[in-house]
Each structure stands twice: as C-alpha cells, then as structure tokens.
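Narrative summary of target 7.
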Amino acid sequence: MTVLLVSALLSSPLTAFGAPPYDNIPEGLTEERYEQLCDDTVEWDEIEDLIRYFSPTYSSLLEQANSTLDDIQSSTAEDIINYPDLIKQTEEGLEAAYGLLAQYENTLPADSSVIQNLKANIADAELNKAQLIEGLENIYKTNAQIEGRLYVSGTQTGVTSRDAIEIQLYPVMEQLRSVIEGLVISYGQLSASRDIYAQQADLYRSVLTMQESMLGLGLATQAEVAQARNDLNVAQSTLAQTDASLNQLAEAIGLQLGYKDRIPQIGPAPDPDLSYVENADLAADIVRAGGENTEIRSAYKSDGTTAGTALRDMTYNEAMGKLSSRMNELYADMKEKAVLYEASQATLKKAELTLSGAQTRYELGMLGASEYKAQILTYTSYMVSAQLAKSNLQQSINNYRWAVEGVLSLG
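Modeled conformation, tokenized:
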C-alpha cells in the first residue's frame, strides 16, 4: 500500500496551492507557526501541519467531506423552515376531519363506509403528524451536532462534526506522513551520496590538472591524460544526475506539502533514537498494531451467523499471522540497522583520526596535495557510509513506528 501511495504522490495531477495571505491564516495556527510553515524549508516537525493545512491530497478529501456536511446543514436549515408549516397543515387538516367526523356520527350509522374512511384518513394523518414531529426533532438534533457537539446515547462527547471528519481522515494523514517522512529520509540518503560525488569530482579535477602538467614535462602520456579526463567526466555526470534526482525528490515533497512554483529545501530527519530500538517490546507492539491496522479490523467483521463467525476467526487469525511475521521482520531489521549504525560511527571516529594525521603531514610538507585530497576522499567515503547507515536506521525505525500505528500493508 505504501509503494502505491508513493507512486500516486509522485505522479499526482493535483497542482499544489500556495500559502494563503496573512489575513487568511488557517484556524488553529498562530502567526508564528504560519510563518514557519510558509518558509522555504520543510522541517521534520512541520510535516504533519503542512499536510493538514496545505497538502492538495489531504485538503481535497477534507474539502469534499466538509462540502457534504455543508449540504446536509443547508438541507436541515430548509427543513427547519418547512417542517413546522407541514405540521401545521396536518393539524389543520386533522381539525377539519374531526369536525366532519363529529357531524357524520350524528347523522350516519357507525358502520357507514363514509365514517370508516374518514377514521382511516384521520389515523393516517395522525401518524403523518407524529412522523413529522419526530423528523423535526431529528433535524434539530442533526443541526445541533453540526453546529455544536456530537451526542452519543444522549451524552455530549465534546467533539464537533467538523472534528469528527478529521478523526475519520486520520488514517489518511498517517499514510501521507509515513510516505513523506520516508521521502525526506531518502532525500538525506541521496544528499549524503552527493557529498562523496562532489569530492570525487574535485579530486579528479586535480588529477587531470596534474597529468596535463606532467604531460608538458614529458612525465605523462596522452592515454593517462585521457583517462584522467574520462574519470572527471564520469564524476561530473554522476554529480549532475544526483543533483537532478535531489531536485526532483524535493519537488515531489514540496508538491504534496502545498509548495507552488518553488522547490523547498529539505531539512534533515531527526537522529536515530537508539533508546527506542533498545526498549521496543515486540509482543506488545504486535498487539497494538493489530488494534490499529485497518486490514486486521476488517478481517474481524462477522455477519453474526455461526458460519460467519467461524470465517471471521479464520480470516482474523490468518491476518494476525501475517502481521506478526511482518512485525518480526521490521523488528529484526531495526535491530540489525542499529548495530550497523553504531559500527559505522566507530569506524568514522577512526577515520577522523587518520585524516587529522594526514592534515598535519600535509601542513608540514610531508604529504602532497593529491595524496592529501585522496585521504579527504577516503574520509568522506567513511562519512557518507556513516550517514547512509544513519539514514537506513532512521528509515527502519520509522517503518517500525508506523507499523505499530497501523500503517502496514499485509499484502
């Protein structure tokens, strides 16, 4: 499901809308928060608010739901005007019918068809009046629910109908958040790779310059210069392709968060929470995930018959088995990524010491510029590896967290 949603996000024909003017700040936002959301950078802690207030996908669904609610409210407003008149007309008709009945009862036999038909019409009118009165009470209640608070079994819940819409759309919000957070983490991974490509291009540029100088002195061949030039071209091409991919990814993220005619900067994902990995309770998390997952809840439905209940139990047990298997996979992946992340951090610290020594020797003239740049490149590769390990752990933790919240496909 997540893969499908990612594809839908990246290919969505919806056009992102720009932030509204300052005299139209969405309800629920302070001016300070509004300014943060409308700047040129997507920060991790802004994703939920950006979806809620500016995402074309979410806003479209919210607008449709509110439009339906507006139609209902408009209809109830008309009924509140019309129903009393209908009740009054029914009462006037009843009053006339009772008058006729009293008149005919004095002049016709009790079993007269005229009297029997008149009594039947009166009974129908009384029933119609009762239904109109009940209908008007329900209309007032519906209107009160829309304008004020929802009631369940006569008890005020403290939730407006508008609030209820957002509650019903919360699974959509969770899906969008999980996908966009994944894209932000992917952006960080790609950005880390870009660093080493830039370093490689810089190094190969220096090598080409050195080879060209050596060629003039008769110390290098045309083939060596051509190879250096080819290495630089490949590095520059890779760097350009990576920049284009970063730009496309930022544009896709911005599109779904309401940015229009501009591509936002993408802020970093938070550092991995190793305590979360250490303290994760797989058994408890499987139970919670089962309660939150829509596929599990759907599997637990029954028509009330013995056969229906048996089918429900079989379907539910099968779905829970799939959920448990997926959660075990995500849990194991998270644990593995945590080990790799900690190992990469230890390796990076050693690489920092090696680079520090190389810098000292370079400053003392004991190491050439090309050799020093090669050491920088080696360090950068370790740094990128550490960043990738960090991003992989971030993504793994994120996948597990959202699975616990019910955002997990069992297909």
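The first helix runs from residue 2 to 11.
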